[in-house]
Amino acid sequence: MKTFHLARLGRDPKGFALVEIIVAIGVAAFTLTAILGLLSAGMKSGKDSMDDTAIANMANFVLSDLRAQSFTKFVDTATSDVLSQTQGIYFDTGGKCLLSGSGASATYMNEASALNAGAFYLCQRAIAKPVIAGDPYKVTLTCSWPVQAPIATRSTKLFYGTLTQY
Fold first, then answer.
1. In the beta sheet, which residues pair with residue 86?
2. HEC letters along 76-95
3. How far apart are alpha carbons 122 and 150 in whole angstroms?
4. Residue 147 per-residue DSSP state
5. How confident is the model at residue 5 (pLDDT cuts 50, 70, 90)?
6. How is residue 119 annotated by DSSP?
7. What is the model's pLDDT at position 122?
8. Domain ranges of the chain
9. How far apart are CA 117 and CA 119, in angstroms?
10. Of the candidates 35, 52, 113, 152, which lies 20 to 30 Å from 158 by C-alpha distance?
């Protein structure tokens, strides 16, 4: 009498079944998709953080520069009227103020010169006269970027400060 041996299906220790390979590829694809999604969100968050830091440093620079100047340079002390209502100050991608000239005679660049010098950020300052005499002058800084983009598509942040004559 002949004996028959039944083959053991799925018990071959030499390799993987096609189903196992497909499941492993599916798990890897799902994991990579999730990681790539987090990577782009993390990159955007990092860029936003860098912009926020640069803008805060620029606002600090502008307010410090205003406070270092003579009060009579932008306010008529006899009438308390603001002489310089709005001024645009340009900064490069590293947050460095773009100036014409050097030393004590340096002035803020105009728009055309700033764009040629690689301006990226624009900080517009506006000084408002106080409602009650003796109160500090309110300084509003509107920082926007990138300067080359149309105004409607720029990112914008507002900062407020005060100026007081001593």
1. 126
2. CCCCCCECCCEEEEEECCCC
3. 13
4. T
5. low
6. -
7. 93
8. 51-163
9. 6
10. 113
Query: What is the average pLDDT value for the chain, to the nearest integer?
Result: 84
How far, in Å, CA of 47 to CA of 45, rounded? 5
Tell me which residue has tokens 């080359």: 148
Name residues whose C-beta falls within 8 Å of residue 83's C-beta, 6 or more positions apart in sequence: 73, 74, 75, 76
Q: Would the pTM count as exceeding 0.85?
A: no
130: its two tokens: 């106080």
The 10s digit of each residue's pLDDT in 26-43 is 999 999 998 988 898 899
Nearest-5° Cα angle at 24, 20 to 28 = 170
Distance CA 86, CA 78 (A): 21
The set of long-range contacts for 145-151, using a CB threshold of 8 Å and a minimum separation of 24, is: 145/51, 145/55, 145/120, 145/121, 146/120, 146/121, 147/90, 147/114, 147/115, 147/119, 147/120, 147/121, 147/122, 148/115
Lowest-confidence region among 26-30, 72-76, 116-120, 146-150: 72-76
